[in-house]
Each structure stands twice: as structure tokens, then as C-alpha cells.
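Review form for a predicted model. The reviewer records the input and the model, then writes brief findings.
Reviewer: anonymous (R2)
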Amino acid sequence: MPAEWEPHRATWIAWPHHEPDWPGKLGAIPWVYAEIARVLADHEPVEILCQNDEVRQRARVALDAHHVRADRVRLHVVPTDRVWLRDSAPSGVLDANGGSTLVNWAFNAWAKYPNWEQDSRIGTAIATITGLSRHEPRRPDTGGRVVLEGGGIEVNGAGLLLTTEEWLLSDVQVRNPGMTRDAYEREFSEWLGVRRTIWLGEGCLGDDTHGHIDDVARFVGHDTIVLAVEDDPADANHARSLDNLRRLEAASREHGVGPLQIVRLPFPRPVLMNGERLPASYANFYFANGVVLVPTFNDPNDRVALDTLARLLPHHQVVGIHAVDLVWGLGTIHCLTQQEPASVSGMSAGN
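Model under review:
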């Protein structure tokens, strides 16, 4: 699996339509999506799944209002339960010949929600649209499909993967009953080309997925990781983030892994809605070709996070996207996007 900053053929998103994901706020969300699509389309093609013809027409109106490049956007009628394609869409990888192909994990709505059957068919739809081959990893012990979500895995494209114990090894929202640490590492090796998995502890507070890595730790280079760290001892994210820092520091000293450069990202102030703590994190950014989209939260730390990423990524444009409304859906920019890597033989396709 290539690192996210490696060349893309396209970015996939799904147009928002499920009002319970943003109770009382759905009206504002399409305009946030249109702004995300505007930035993305200046850098690479954007493929958008739409629930039905009516949603497709509404998406076109919003995209036109934001002057999104029409030559870089395609709208497809593909029903979804929700729009978090980071988790429901397949992972794009390269095969032995450098061609792009799809690893289609099973999806069960984070082992939490009852409505997931439309989302479980997204991989088939994307394979049909693109003509790419699609593979379904299966457990060697039961023969059942392996349930995973893209927000829980973070790779550097050179054999390292970050994930959390809270997501895969706890007894809450269990994706694959009976699967062990070693069994997961074998799946990562076989399907993603991973030679070493670094296990962090917990994700951030308010994370509906129960521990996805993309709210806490991200690669920004083959040996550079940004880690969300909360400095306030009174905040529940403080102990979690310091534990993850210690784990990364220990991994950096291991033979065959380090040394790793670990750079701290702040958290914004706690973002609350109706008394609920939301998973607001600058780590939920997304790489496209030559650009990084970063969620912002009307907080002084917005500038710190943007400046930190700009310093680490001098060859990328760093763009802040207002995400206070977006995070009410319990996810932001990385959660709603999924990259399709460019084939080695066709890397100019998305440029």
C-alpha cells in the first residue's frame, strides 16, 4: 500500500445525504463538501458517489456554486448508508507489476450500527466504475471475510504500519472475534506489504470508531510521524497521547524500525455539541497530489497545526478546511476521503 502522499489517480468521496449523521446540521454539510471538492479538483480527479439522481443534482448545484472544476469531477449514482469512504471503500494498493488494485475489506458499520448493507457493496461499485481488480481478504481460521476500516490503518509506503490496540484488540466493537495481534499482522503483511506493525494504545476521546489511528498519529514521511498530543493534564486525551508518545519512542529505538522523527501536533480545544465530546483532531488531514487538507476548528491551535504541517511538507500546499460543523458527524476530512493510487505505469493520470 503506497503512502498517502504518493501519486493518486483520484480521490473518492460520497455526497452527504444521511441526516442522522449530522442531526440538525445536514443543510450546511454539502457546502463544506463542495469546498473540499473544489480544493481537491485543482489537484486531481474527484469521483463522487451519490445516493440517487436527486442527490446527484443537488451535488452538481453545490459544486457549480463553488466553481469546482467540472472536468475533474464525475458523479456516480451509488447508494450508501453513510458517506465515510475512508472506512467503507476499499484500500487502494499496487500489485506486483505496479498496477493499482483494490483490497476490499468487509465492512459492518464499525461493529456498532445496524445499517451497513449498502456500504458493504461500495467496493464492488468502485471496481465496476474503474475496471480495477478487487480482492476480499479472508480469515484462514474461519474462512470469513476480514472486517477492517481504512481509518484504522496508517502506512508509510515503506513497510511500516500504525494502528491501535483499542481498535482491534479490545472487547468493545469487536470487528473480528477471535483474531489475535499476530493474525492481524499477517493480514497487513499479505495484503498491504507491511513488514512491521507499530501498535499504539488508544485513539482520541469522542471517537465513534473506538480507536482509529487517523485521529492521533499519521506519517508525513517515511520516517516522520505527527502525533496529536494534549498538554493539559486535566483533559482525558492527555494520558492517552502520552502513552502513544512513549510507544512511538520505544518503536523508534527498535532495530528495523527507527530512528523515527516524532513531531507533536496539538489538539484544538474540546469541541462539544449538545454535551457530547466530538473527535476534533488536526491529525485527520488528507493528502492529495501536491496538497494537504487540514480540518480547522476556530481555535488558536489551528495556526500551530497548519504551520507545523507546512514546515514538514514544504512541497505541499497546506489548506485549512473549517470542520466545526463537519465533526458533528463524528469524522472530518480523512474520514470522508479515500485515495485511489496511480499505477506506476500511469502516474501522470491524476496530475
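Findings: Residues 159 and 194 are 4 Å apart (CA to CA).
Further findings: The chain has a mean pLDDT of 96.
Recommendation: see findings above.
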